[in-house]
Specification:
The chain is α/β, with parallel strands linked by helices. It has a single domain (about 5-120), classed as Rossmann fold, CATH 3.40.50.2300. The protein is built from five helices and five strands; from the N terminus they run E-H-E-H-E-H-E-H-E-H. It has helices spanning about 10-25, 35-45, 60-70, 90-95, 110-120; strands at about 5-10, 30, 50-55, 80-85, 100-105. Helix 1 (about 10-25) links the parallel strand 1 and strand 2. Helix 2 (about 35-45) runs parallel beside helix 3. Pfam families: Response_reg. This is Chemotaxis protein CheY.
Length: about 120
């Protein structure tokens, strides 16, 4: 059974690019355009195995989204990768401290992204 990845990013271009990379590798993909949309997709999906989320988004940013996911028992153990243009040390530390498993700065190399996703999925 293939794993399902939720991609949360307000940029349609980024969502489509990351989705293309993941689908090519055999993953199922669900996309969302911000944190609120991401939570709706998470709740309505049969199963989400990993989340890739941006930080800067309208309505609900990535930090709030990740905190919301981590506060819920059912979703607490889903690996989360932050994929953001915010690459300063304070941003990375903030992302990891609220529960992200990994923080990658855009533009991320597709090979590195896939390697990290596969590692987090075991």
């Amino acid at each position: 059974m293939s794993k399902t990845i939720l991609i949360v990013d307000d940029s349609k271009t980024v969502r489509n690019l990351v989705a293309f990379i993941m689908k090519k590798e055999g993953f199922k993909v669900v996309t969302a355009e911000d944190g609120l949309d991401g939570l709706e997709r998470l709740y309505s999906a049969d199963r989400i195995d990993l989340i890739i989320s941006d930080i800067n988004m309208p309505r609900m940013d990535g930090f709030t989204f990740i905190k919301s996911v981590r506060e819920q028992e059912a979703y607490r153990d889903i690996p989360i990768v932050v994929l953001s243009t915010e690459g300063q040390e304070k941003d990375i530390q903030a992302g990891l401290s609220i529960g992200a498993n990994m923080y990658m700065v855009k533009p991320a190399q597709p090979e590195k992204m896939l390697k990290n996703v596969k590692m987090l999925l075991g």
